[in-house]
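Explain my protein.
***
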Amino acid sequence: MPEDGKAGEGPWQERAPLVVSQLQHELWPIASFTNSTSSSTKSYTAAFVCLQEVLHVQLVDILAGLNNVTSSSSSNSSSSVPASGPKWAHIGVGRDDGKTKGVYSPIIYPVGIFDLLHAETVWLNPTPDRPSKGWDAGSIRILTMGVFRHKPTQRTVIATNTHLDNAGAKSRLESVGIILDKLQRAQDKWSNGTAAEPVPMFLTGDFNSLITQEAYQAMVASGYKRDLRDQVDAKSWYGNVNTFTGFQRSARLWGGGYAVLPNVFDSGVYLSDHPAVVGDVVLS
């Protein structure tokens, strides 16, 4: 979500209300539930919003919009704090310093439906505990991970979100190895080693990889994750195959329905260089 309107988007000030409006439209059933105190409206419906390339001030604006509070990001100051409730909160940090500098790959979640049990950021480089570029990467890259308890069912869910490098093929491949290792370790820890009852988990993100390229192939070959799009009958798909303006589908949702939402409307303003990808999954 470049702030200065690169890649054909308008300035963030123009796009912000459109981005928030699209999210609110997709999330209204969850928002209705979190606002209600009536047991008759209790719902098991939930949602996670996983974003990439989000600047701190953009995260502040998005969470302010979702929570219907006044944003304090107009000064472009990193000292502005993203809203944490009453409806939505986030996990994730700026990739450059582990705080607010650089872009985030945040996971936004409904606080009325999920309890946050654990959150961490993994840098995709040979030293995953601290920021730096990895291998041939053009930028610092991260994995955001959260462990949540679904309040209505008391089920545990592991949510992960990433953005692999666009410049470095070796970086993408090595990053997949780090991600797979981290997912396996999280699975072992939070399932208490019970293979018969693994904790549900998902990975979202922009792989910057076609399905024929090594990073995607390595993930598929692991047998550990499945592409949600391939689990849904093509008759149930909605929207374009492409998820990057001018390029082939590269933003992956692993996991139903599957949809790629529009990213340009009557005003001609592009919300982002990537349309949003939406997936429906069920905890069995």
Notes: The helical segments are 12-35, 56-67, 169-190, 214-221, 228-231. The mean pLDDT is 78.
